[in-house]
Amino acid sequence: MVSGLILAEVPFPPSVEDIFPPNIGDIGPWLSKFTLLIFLAVAIVLVYFLVSYRNPQIVPTKKQWLAESVYGFVREGVAKDVIGHEGLRFAPYLASLFTFIVVANVFAIVPGIQISPMSHIAFPAVLALCTYGLYLFQGFKKHGFLGYLKHATVLPAPWFMQPLLLPIEALQAFILQPATLALRLFANMFAGHMLLLVFTLGGFALLNAESIFIKPISVLSWGMTILLTFFELLVAALQAYVFTLLTANYLAGTLAEEH
């Protein structure tokens, strides 16, 4: 998206409006660059894993090795380590979540795309709602409806502290957990995109400055864009890992016998 915003002159700084690409055609507001990127991310993940496991080998090919390594990392390093042995049944969901978010985030530094769908709050919110629904379902299934409400909100504290603790725990379990899960991913990807916009467009603004002493600073601004692009790649993977790890942590808390 940065490439589409490079102008001969930049009379105004980038704003929140730059994060909303226009609709594609007259089909409706649902079809935009973001929705196409979501479909593309899903297709990339599905096709890659299907092709990698189409003809599995005892000595894995590079594609099979990478697919097995990613799944094994999530299965052993997240599902099993955080949730325990019971967490193995959630490994497919957690691995799918991790790989999908990584691919969607990496779009932020792909030339010609240069924006992640996760920089729009709607998409992290949907992923957070999926996790929210999953851990509520597991909690009600394991503890029963009233049992889970008690499990999620009642702490092992003296009775006179419960009126203070109950609303805090209820707010955390049923509102703050899914909200912060979505906001953390959104805020990091949004901030990264805006930083790339600032330094890219700032370079053109400096290049068009009247003073010959200011023009060379544009090179420094573009150099920062390159450095931030590599940093954004690290953030893309890290945020996918954090989202997946927190999902596993919430599931572990739901499935625990005690609060």
UniProtKB/TrEMBL annotation:
Belongs to the ATPase A chain family. It comes from Dactylosporangium sucinum. The chain crosses the membrane at residues 30-53, 90-115, 121-140, 152-175, 181-207, 219-242. HAMAP family: ATP_synth_a_bact. PANTHER family: ATP SYNTHASE SUBUNIT A, CHLOROPLASTIC. InterPro entries: ATP_syn_F0_a_bact/chloroplast, ATP_synth_F0_asu, ATP_synth_F0_asu_AS, F0_ATP_A_sf. This is ATP synthase subunit a. It is found in: Cell membrane; Membrane. Keywords: ATP synthesis, Cell membrane, CF(0), Hydrogen ion transport, Ion transport, Membrane, Transmembrane, Transmembrane helix, Transport. Gene3D superfamilies: ATP synthase, F0 complex, subunit A (1.20.120.220). It is a multi-pass membrane protein. It holds the Pfam family ATP-synt_A. GO terms for biological process: proton motive force-driven plasma membrane ATP synthesis. GO terms for molecular function: proton-transporting ATP synthase activity, rotational mechanism.
